[in-house]
Amino acid sequence: MKANLAHAALFSALLTAATTPVLAEPEKFVVDDEHFSMAFEVMHIGYAPVIGMFRDIEGRFEFDETANELSSGTLIFRSDSVFTNHDKRDEHLRKPDFLDSKKYPEVTFELTDFETTGENTGTVTGDLTMLGKTRPVDVNVTLNKSDKYPIGHKDYTLGISAEATIKRSDWGMTYGLDPDLVGDEVKLRFGFEAIKDSSFF
C-alpha cells in the first residue's frame, strides 16, 4: 500500500512538472561601446541646431525577450567626452555653464519602469542624473533586431534605437536661455548594440 502511494505521489509530481510552464529568466546584456551612438540636438539662436554626442559611455540591462520585459538598466556617460566638432565650444560645454565636468564627471540614466507599446517597441522610464539633480525621463525604444552576431564575437546581440526630449533647465542648466541664445529643448537619439554576456555582472 505504501509503495502504491509513493508511486502515485511520484507520478503526480512528474505530471505537475510536465504541465507547469517554464518561466524564462531575464538575460543580462552589456552595451557594446564600439557600436553605440548618442546624439543630442539643441537650437542655436533660432538659426540652426547644434548636433553633438558623448563619446565615452557604458551600460548594462536585464531583458526577458520572451515576455518582452525590461527589468533593470543603467547607462553612464562621461560628461567630458562631449563632442560637437568645435574645440572651443566643447571646452565651454565642459565648464560650469553647462555640464560642469570637473564637479560632475558622469551623467547617468537608471531605469525605473518599462511599458510595452507594440511588438518591438516600448517606453522606458528612468531617472536621469545630471549636475547633481535627478529627474524622470521617458524614452521611446525600438528593438530593431535580435540574433546571433554574424561576425566578430558571434554572441547573441540586440540592436536598439531610442529617442527622448528633455528641457535642460529642469536640471538647472540655464545658460543662454535669456536672451534665447541656446535652446532649452534638447532632443536625444540613441542607437546601439547590446551583447548577452553574464561575465560583465
**What's the N-to-C terminus distance?**
52 Å
Main structural class: mainly beta
Classify the helix fraction into a percent range.
10-25%
Strand percentage lies at over 45%
Order of helices and strands: HEEEEEHEEEEE
Enumerate how many helices there are, as a single number.
2
Trace the largest sheet across and list its strands. Answer: 1-3-4-6-7-8-9-10
Specify the oligomeric state: single chain
Low-confidence stretches: 5-22
Mean pLDDT over all positions: 89
Biggest beta sheet summary: 8 strands, antiparallel, barrel
Number-wise, the strands total: 10
Element layout with pairings:
Layout: H1 2-19, E1 27-44, E2 48-54, E3 57-64, E4 69-78, E5 82-83, H2 87-93, E6 106-116, E7 121-130, E8 133-148, E9 156-167, E10 182-196
Question: What features would you describe in this structure?
Answer:
The chain is mainly beta. The protein contains two helices and ten strands, in the order H-E-E-E-E-E-H-E-E-E-E-E. The protein has helices at residues 2-19, 87-93, and strands at 27-44, 48-54, 57-64, 69-78, 82-83, 106-116, 121-130, 133-148, 156-167, 182-196. It has an eight-stranded antiparallel barrel. Strand 6 and strand 7 (121-130) form a beta hairpin. The radius of gyration is 23 Å and the shape is elongated. The termini are far apart. Mean pLDDT is 89; it is low at 5-22.
